[in-house]
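Re-run with default settings, no changes from the original entry. Doing this only to confirm the output is reproducible before filing.
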Amino acid sequence: MTDIERKEGTDLVSPSRNPYGACLTLSAGWSAVAVLLVAAGCSPQAPAPLPPPIVQVIEVGLTNVPLFTEIIGHLDSPQNVEIRARVEAFVEGIHFTEGTEVAEGDPLFALDRRPFEQRLAAAQGVLAEAKATLNKYEKDVARLTPLAKAQAIPQQDLDNAIASVEVGKASVLSAQARVESAQIDLNYADVRAPISGLIGAKEVSIGELVGKGEPTLLATLSTLDPIWFYCNISEVQYLRAEGAVRRTGKRMEHLSMELILADGSVHSATGRFVFIDRAVDPSTGTLRARAEFANPEKLLRPGMFARIRVGLGVRPDSILVPERAVTELQGRHFVWVIDADNQATQRSVTVGEILGGSVLIRDGLQAGERIVVEGLQKVREGAPVQPMTAAQMAEAAAQAARAGAASHARPGKE
């Protein structure tokens, strides 16, 4: 190879003559470094572990729990009087306004009186005739008695006269009964309120024939103060209530109760049991009972559905937890307990009554333990958590909001 060829060949690979030579040389150098790093066992750094999940906890404490039971039932009036036509007649007048209060003795319906007045007059005529006949028989006896003593007439004539008097007396009694019956029928034509109360809708109209064949329903009248609450108490409810009441030295009849209406409102007056049946119905396993409530404002009406909350005394040193902290699985109940190392453990508990969003824990928890009330889906058995109270979580949220507001208020870089 000539010197010129060597020089030209050197120029072809020289970095100073080849613009890509430096790049090729640098690339080769980095490749070598990468090979050395792989050979030395160098690997990318692993991601940092996630922090424990934040859950809201409360500390379990002891409290005095008011015991009560709730029973569903319906309201009814102590007296629901069906006003019916007792005689057959046409309706001539209606003297009340539907759905209003009426007093005892107020006129309600007027029936056609003329047929009953005619029957009364006829019965009175028969009575007068019977009395006249009896008077004649009595005079005959008075006239024949001295004659019979003087043996001026046969004794049989006197005996017949005396028997006629007895027949006449019977005829008078029969006629008097017919008069009284006609008078009663005439009184039935004037239909009046048998009691004071609230009257419902009229069931007949003017001109309608009523009482033909059977007593026709004209209207229904109900007393509203007091009002009765009817219910069926299960055997379990009855036994629990009796057990709780006996511990306080009271009786079921002396328990006070609240009436809760369909809209959730509580009636202003408290009530009491006035009747508990003597036996349990074997077909339903329930015991019939009736409670009484004052209803001066006539707010409560027959047929309303309601429930009563019966107070059974106080259970001291009890544990109440929020209902949302208790989970149920296949008939068993559990809570998540946080230990001193902030690790979660699922524990089985025995629950009792539900009291306004809280559950009575009969067994399984001790005072001073911490349980999870929010974030149950984040908790795993034996896994650590970051427990915070409701106040701590609210403070953390407030700090985050203030930090966010400050970052938005800071001017951006040019």
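The first helix runs from residue 3 to 13. The chain has four domains: 3-39, 67-77+224-315, 80-222, 316-400.
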